[in-house]
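Subject: Predicted fold for Aminotransferase EvaB, 368 residues

User T.R. writes:
Posting the sequence so we have a shared reference for the thread.
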Amino acid sequence: MTIPVWDYRPELEEERAEIHDAVDTVLDSGRLVLGASLQAFEREFADYHGAGHCVGVDNGTNALVLALRALGVGPGDEVITVAHTAVPTVIAIDAVGARPVLVDVREDHLIDPGQVAAAVTERTRVVLPVHLYGRCADMTALRRIADEHGLRIVEDCAQATGARHDGHLAGTLGDLATFSFYPTKVLGGFGDGGAVLTGDAGLAEEIRSLRFYGMKERYYTLRTPAYNSRLDDLHAEILRRRLRRLDGYLARRRAVAARYAEGLADTGLVLPDRGADDEHAYHLYVVRHPDRDRIVEAVRAEGVGVGIHYPWPVHTMTGFAHLGYAAGSLPVTERLSREVFSLPMYPTLTTDQQDRVIEVLRKVVSAG
Ligand SMILES: *Cc1c(COP(=O)(O)O)cnc(C)c1O
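User M.O. replies:
I've generated the structure tokens; pasting them so everyone works from the same file.
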């Protein structure tokens, strides 16, 4: 039995009839761009979160770019985020011309509010927490720091659709929140896609314009030169159907995590902190061990896929050398990058597959 680390095909197979129906719906509507399907998805995604406004965009990276632009962030400004993340988090800050200020994470992989407070300068405009692997950052502490210094919060929810912090859904705790519908994400689309969520009607209007060349929608009046970052109606219509299944899929991810937690409890692996039942969305199930490289090689040799998220902290990447962070400057991030690895995690993972993952890991870890 080989078990891939990602596999969205069985999920899409379960949904094949719904996907075909979505294609028919868009075909019948006669409107492929900025049409009724996009509008309906935006309404439904906002309602799911109990949030005021959603703007569909072309991917999660541009969702971040547009959120920062809507806040007027640009050259001379600083945005505080983490190096322990997917690289697009930091790329988006760079793309608007602002300076990414990278701070360390806590042992639980999430941004360290104490480090954020220490990194604030008179140039800081935004704190950009990443709800990494599907677990929310400490939004209570971050909100306190942001309010104290007059900063805005943009939540990077690319990995955390459906996660909660103190009962509140990820994406409802900042000034703006960005999502990715890349196919492996918790709510994946049929290709690339993304969204920005906000309770602020003015910011939503700004983002609607920025995703459409900077026009006023439907009027050929340019407000400010921008790009094209629209979400297609076909993607939106498929996402509408997938959104109805989201809670079911989250429950299945959480059940996989519970089985892993039980099966791997006494192995010496550091397992994810689960928090309350509905806090973690389990985009990834990331464990830690100092002997990571040996374990990963041996587990893969047994046909069990594992990933590493992420092997190179962003501040050590050649492309970000200009930021001037020396190796050793973010010690927790750098240690975690040597110890983390991700087990197969998706809603359609069968119990046999889960038990095989557990069996292989138990054997490989204890052989060390
Ligand atoms: C996937 C991801 C993004 C980017 O989303 P895309 O849709 O791939 O552009 C941004 N931030 C994080 C944390 C991600 O995991």
